[in-house]
Design a protein that fits this description.
By secondary structure, the protein is an alpha/beta fold. It is 43% helix and 20% strand. It has helices spanning 13-24, 60-68, 86-97, 118-127, 133-146, 152-167, and strands spanning 3-7, 30-34, 46-52, 73-80, 105-113. Helix 1 (13-24) crosses helix 6 (152-167) and helix 4 (118-127) packs antiparallel against helix 5.
C-alpha cells in the first residue's frame, strides 16, 4: 500500500506538520511532495492532504485536487492561526471534506495552530477602536500564542493521528 503526503504551505507551518506525518508513516512505500499546481503526483492508495487555512477553508488548488481523487483513502491535515477551538477546527474540516468524492474513504482530519505573518498582527492593531478593544485584545493574545506553533506537541499529535489511521487499516 503506497502512501502519498501532499501539502500546501504558505509560511512553513503546514510543511512542518507534513514532515511529522511523513516520518510517522510506516514502511518505505511512501512519498511526500508540496502542491505546486500540477496533478501528476505519484499515485497512492492512502493520501494525507495538507493545507493552510485562509478564512476557514483550504486553497482552491487543494479543494480541486481532493475532488479529483477516486477510490482512495484520504486524511486531511492543516494549520490555522486560531488555536484551542475544537468547534472552529470542526467547521474547517466540514467545509473541506465535502470536496472528497463519495467513492473515497475519508479517514479523518488533524488540525493545529500555526504562527501567522506579522502583517496579521499589524492589521489587528489598525482595526482597534473604542468599540472593539476587548475583541482585538483577544485576537492579539491569540496571535502572540500562535507564534510558538506548531510546537513539539503539535508534531507528536500529528504523528498520533497517523498511528490511529494505520491502526484501523
Amino acid at each position: 500500500m503506497k502512501t502519498q503526503v501532499l501539502y500546501m504551505s504558505r509560511t512553513g507551518n503546514t510543511e512542518k506538520i507534513a514532515q511529522a506525518i511523513f516520518s510517522a508513516i510506516p514502511g518505505k512505500n511512501k512519498d511526500i511532495a508540496r502542491f505546486a499546481g500540477q496533478t501528476d503526483y505519484d499515485m497512492g492508495d492512502i493520501y494525507f492532504i495538507g493545507f493552510w487555512t485562509d478564512r476557514g477553508s483550504a486553497s482552491v488548488e487543494v479543494l480541486d485536487y481532493l475532488g479529483s481523487l477516486q477510490g482512495k483513502k484520504i486524511a486531511l491535515f492543516g494549520t490555522c492561526g486560531m488555536g484551542e477551538s475544537i468547534e472552529y477546527y470542526r467547521k474547517i474540516e466540514e467545509r473541506i471534506k465535502v470536496f472528497i468524492e463519495d467513492g473515497n474513504q475519508y479517514m479523518g482530519c488533524f488540525l493545529c495552530q500555526g504562527k501567522m505573518p506579522m502583517q496579521v498582527r499589524e492589521k489587528y492593531l489598525k482595526m482597534r477602536c473604542p468599540g472593539n478593544e476587548g475583541q482585538i485584545q483577544k485576537m492579539l493574545q491569540n496571535f502572540d500564542k500562535a507564534l510558538l506553533h506548531p510546537d513539539w506537541k503539535d508534531m507528536e499529535n500529528a504523528q498520533r493521528f497517523v498511528h490511529r489511521i494505520y491502526s484501523r487499516l
